Amino acid sequence: MSKSETTLSKLLVESKCSQECKDDLLSSLPRDRGFFAEHLYQYQGFWYTPNLLKGVLYSQKHFQAKDSDIILVSNPKSGTTWLKSLVFALVYRQEFKTPLESHPLLDNNPHTLVPFIEAFDFNAQDTSPRIFSTHIPLGSLPESIKESSCKVVYCCRNPKDAFVSLWHFMKSLFLKDMVGCTMEEMVSGFCRGSSVYGPFWDHALEYWKESQANPKKVFFVMYEEMREKPEECVMRIAEFLGLPFTEREIEDGVLDGIIKLCSLENLSKLEVNTTGKLVNGMETKAFFRKGETGGWRDTLTPLLAEEIDKMTEEKLIGSSFRFFC
Ligand code: PAP
């Protein structure tokens, strides 16, 4: 972190810094129009709303990873909720057995069980191992995540479906007016990188490269692969975490039980996920929609899809990485 970034981080997080002073600090960062908030700010190469940026800086300063921690990472709308439920269920499969009557996922939304480190509530986790999630890009992760032996699981989704999911999420939540934003404008912002935690492609590519260079630290999985072969993916995640399923468990239906419990069909019907709210007031039902691969076709015009495809092509020049289409 540069010296000016350190000062910025210190001041933005400190409560004694007045709002005026925080506004001044924000104004020293590159700014673009936003969709969640009026403006997005660029920090360490990625874009944030003021609140998200505050959370990133706070976690950089205060989050202390333990070697046994599990950190789930994704670009927004790339399978976070699903991954949280699957990893929670597989890690605690001895404590909470399936078939189930009293599993925590039946009356808690996955975001409640696995908190975001940038949402300030990481001290509330008292389970072991602790499971956290984040959308923070690789280069901006708190140092202790990089330095400790904690494990990182990254879930990636194709950019068009993730974009469309974000669009519907914003519409279904508080942003029906979308700060006067059209889909064309939002695609254009997404493609120039200025969407929350964007550029989307850089985010995914950095973690993918890290998973290749350091496969014991970072496990990279595709949302689309999980849709196609959930058993295989969950088994690979479990192995990576050092918690492989035994043959006996598989015969006994433990793996199948976890996949059924965490399926979109099951989770989206639960009362906690139809009428519940998160502590920040967000309606939990907004996290469950169609979960399709290629569902973008219902929302994006061919022209807008092409705009995203062009950017994808450009970003992947020189890399062997490929998104699912
Ligand atoms: P977040 O980044 O705000 O946490 P995230 O969970 O990553 O959101 O993405 C939501 C998407 O995952 C939604 O996709 P869609 O809009 O294309 O439908 C949602 O439907 C999908 N999703 C949520 N839970 C599951 C699940 N259990 N299985 C499969 N997909 C899911």
Strand percent estimate? 5-15%
What is the rounded distance between the termini?
36 Å
Name the average pLDDT: 90
Question: What would the principal axes of the Cα set say about the shape?
Answer: globular
CATH superfamily descriptor: P-loop containing nucleotide triphosphate hydrolases
Counting DSSP E segments of at least 2 residues, the number of strands comes to 7
Largest sheet: 4 strands, parallel
Bound molecules: 3'-phosphate-adenosine-5'-diphosphate
Number of helices: 17
Can you give the helix content as a percent range?
Answer: 40-55%
Class, according to the CATH hierarchy?
Alpha Beta
GO molecular function: sulfotransferase activity
Family: Belongs to the sulfotransferase 1 family.
InterPro entries: P-loop_NTPase, Sulfotransferase_dom
Protein name: Sulfotransferase
Spell out the key features of this protein.
7 strands, binds 3'-phosphate-adenosine-5'-diphosphate, alpha/beta, 17 helices, Rossmann fold, four-stranded parallel sheet, three-stranded antiparallel sheet
Explain what you see.
This protein is an alpha/beta fold and 325 residues long. The chain has one domain (3-315): Rossmann fold (3-Layer(aba) Sandwich). The protein has helices at residues 3-13, 19-26, 50-62, 80-91, 104-107, 110-113, 143-147, 159-172, 183-191, 200-213, 223-228, 230-240, 247-251, 254-261, 264-269, 271-274, 302-315; strands spanning 31-33, 39-43, 46-48, 70-74, 131-134, 151-156, 218-222. The strands form 2 sheets. Strands 5-4-6-7 form a 4-stranded parallel sheet, sandwiched between helices. A 3-stranded antiparallel sheet has the order 1-2-3. The protein is globular, with a radius of gyration of 19 Å. Residues 74, 76-82, 85, 161, 165, 168, 262-264, 267, 287-291, 295 line the site of 3'-phosphate-adenosine-5'-diphosphate (PAP).
